[in-house]
Design goal:
With about 170 residues, this protein is mainly α. Helices cover about 70% and strands about 0% of the residues. It contains six helices and no strands. It has helices spanning about 5-30, 35-50, 55-75, 80-90, 100-120, 145-160. Helix 2 runs parallel beside helix 4 (about 80-90) and helix 4 (about 80-90) packs parallel to helix 6 (about 145-160). It comes from Ponticoccus alexandrii. InterPro entries: Prepilin_IV_endopep_pep.
Amino acid sequence: MLIPASAAAWFLPFTLPICLYICYTDMKGMRIPNHAVLALFAVYAMVGLIALPLDIYLWGYLHLVVVLIAGIALNAGGALGAGDAKFAAAAAPLIHLGDLRFLMILFAANLLAAFFAHRLAKHTPLRRLAPHWKSWDTGSKFPMGMALGGTLALYLALGVWYGQTPPQ
């Protein structure tokens, strides 16, 4: 992985609670709240100044803009929810561009796991643990925040262990 391990270690403790919250709110109400997306952006804006060299930190904002434009287009086409697009844009600066191929594989695996876990819980007695969650009764719709939040959390956790270390 090309993300610096030190940067992943800085970002992970701040982003993990946000990722878990996004998973929870999307399963419960089929929404990713704006305040959670803004919190994720604030983590990058503040922690990124400490965790990353200035040039890489500033390039992260371009990543945010590019992913936001792509997300808006996908949302307009009905392929992605607005909250999902905003979350992906806020998460984009936290991802090292060189890890994009790995991230897509991680997202695909996480999406499959999240989808099957959600459907399994939906059709088993596990559903009784949270009987009023909106995601149980949305037909074919799926709480994508579950996969998006999980992917970012896993990416940063893996980055702590397998990320680049500075030469000694």
